[in-house]
Amino acid sequence: MKNRWLFLPIIIFHSLIFAQSSEGKDEITRKSINSIRISSSPKIDGILDDEVWQNAPIASDFIERNPNNGKPQPEQYKTTVKVLYDDTGIYFGAQINSPEPSKIAREMTERDNIANDDLLGITINGYNDKQQSLMFIVQASGVQADAKIVINNNDDFSWNAVWYSAVKLNDKGWATEIKIPYSELRFPKKDVQEWGINFFSQVRNIQTQYTWNFVDNKKGTFMTYDGILTGIENIKTPTRLSFLPYFSTYANHYDGKTTFNVNGGMDLKYGINDAFTLDMTLIPDFGQANFDNAVLNLGPFEQQYEENRSFFTEGTELFNKGNLFYSRRIGGSPTKYPNLTQNEEVVQFPEKVKLFNALKISGRTSKGLGIGFFNGITEKTYATIKNKNTGEMRDEVVEPWSNYNVFVLDQRFNENSSVSLVNTNVTRDGAFRDANVTALLGDIRNKKNTVNIFGHFKESVANDAKMIYGTEAAAGANKISGVHRYGASFNLKTKDYNINDLGYTGGNNKVAYHGNYSYRYLKPRGNLNNLNYNLNLTSVYRLEPYMYSSFEIHQNLQLTNKKFQNFGVGLLLQPSGQKDIFEPRTFGRHLNVPAMVNPWIFYNSDQRKKFSYGGYTEIYVYDAPGRISYVSELNTRYRVSDRFSVGYEFDYDIQKNDQGFVGKNADQIFIGRRDINTFTNSIYSQYIFNDKMALSFNFRHYFSGVKYSKFSSLNLDGSLADSDYAKNNDGTYNFWNIDMRYSWWFAPGSQLTLLYRNATDSYLPLANQNFKKNFDYMFSQPMLNNLSLKVTYYLDYNRIKNWF
Prior knowledge:
The chain is mainly beta and 804 residues long.
């Protein structure tokens, strides 16, 4: 089997080249619209009655993108967009018709969230290179959203601009007026500008999307199908300099103690030139970031959490190249635990390391070269240790002053291909571990967007008493257009490959071969709007010492019907079982896992309706007596009105006769047979006062209990033998949190947030607690009550200059 899999990428590559030659050779047609200069700006009120609009050029004749790709927009839903400009910015006035204005979807939501809304969107590419568009969306409710469009369709909505818009219903449907200041756009310093541009609209009650310039769903990305905006001449590029000072105050009550603190600091954004921007945070405050969804983690890898700090989520698409940057490492837990003598104990261990400051520089030149530079510094952090006999206290450094750095060069070419060089580096003061990772990445597509060939090579180096080197390599090819799509790839990680200082490694010491095939509807057929079938084959081998690990077959079918209900079914098979190379937590060892079959199914109702619901269920059945797992989720949402909605989600995961690592000594590795029951209840609600003010409530209770019934020692062949291991590993973990947040965008780019949080967690070395005992113990633990107020105020240099 090993040799057969090695030839698979070559076979697929030849078939891809053949498929490329059979694709159509039609060129993309680009519409053009000419903007005109105005001397007086229109009032941004959603009413297109200003005189300047009367002779403005019009973009019309939209074309359906989904579900009937290529069909002309019906007259009753006609969309028209007018374009003007002056010395400060560019203006858009749009009319979106509706045959039944009462059915225009206008659900209120918070900024950057897309709700049950009709909408109008604009994409602007100041360099007209089909590679770096910015997207601005106005929903019929008046709520704004903006994002950077990324080639892999994972649009970056964390990017925020300051722009102006207004919406008004009228007898034809609804209209919007928009002003986007030049300071929020990126374009070259030229007397005559030519930008890439596209407009799109969505009609929610018929679940249809339209674009001005036709977007072919068979191949390519949205950015490759934009039109052209001309006519903008002799504009002065403004100084792109803004400040975001903040003030915050916190009241904390925990374990009978109440504390107060006040913070102040500032974020700064400066346009170094037309292409590059400097972002800096000085004395950062992340006290209002969301709670992590903590879990009882019994697996071999650490739990990976989402980044909730805005500085690390906004404008980071370059830094995420190659998946080498896991920003939670910066300001995370200390990397060292104190060295204790027999009579010492830790009385205070810091949960997090404090971030001192951070900056990032990023942008892309007119030649397609993207450059990103990130640097962050964390402060020296101590743990407090007590001598139990003498009472003497001492401090020990558990994290020194540390510098975190990411550098990226990303050259795009042929509109949708790129080659990237990425380097991450962590330098810690003193004798603590330093680390460096360098990666070369390639993602090549032909001009017709029918074939994708990719690969990467990464090298990790760590100085931890001695130099440790590791390698990751991957390559693959895919046919990415048409009804039938397929491809093959491989991924290899050596045993010493480790990027955990600033990234997330996961499993190493393995090579995986992967093949895929998919079939899809490109247009509605019969009672279905879309259908997608996927087949994936994966074979995994351990590298040192070389050993077959697993073969996996996964197929799934997903579809949406004319009633906009989503269905899906799937089947995952491991017909020969698995030699689990990670669960023993020891190099060169493995645990035999029996053959497994995993069927699953999901359903989501029509999300347009006031009451919507969905969920999934799956079962893992193993070829072993009594070993089975059930995993399910049920979620519901009720839209009381366009301003108020509530939702509930229930998740459970029941594992019977599971097997997992419990401990080891110098001679043996111990595996326990266990039952694990996990339940999660989540409630969320939101009341939106208007497009700038919102109140939200989130509650989550997580419960997980594990009960061991037998312990065994692990043999060298992966089988188990009887053991006298008797340590208690039973446990029950609870995590409870409530977040209640009031947000008010009181001025463009400026926000006031009032947040109340309540949280507690508990761990009890017992299992099978009844509901009352479980809750009684959880609420007997210290509980955090936190009330905080944070105010940020956006200051633009150009406005400040005008004040004086």
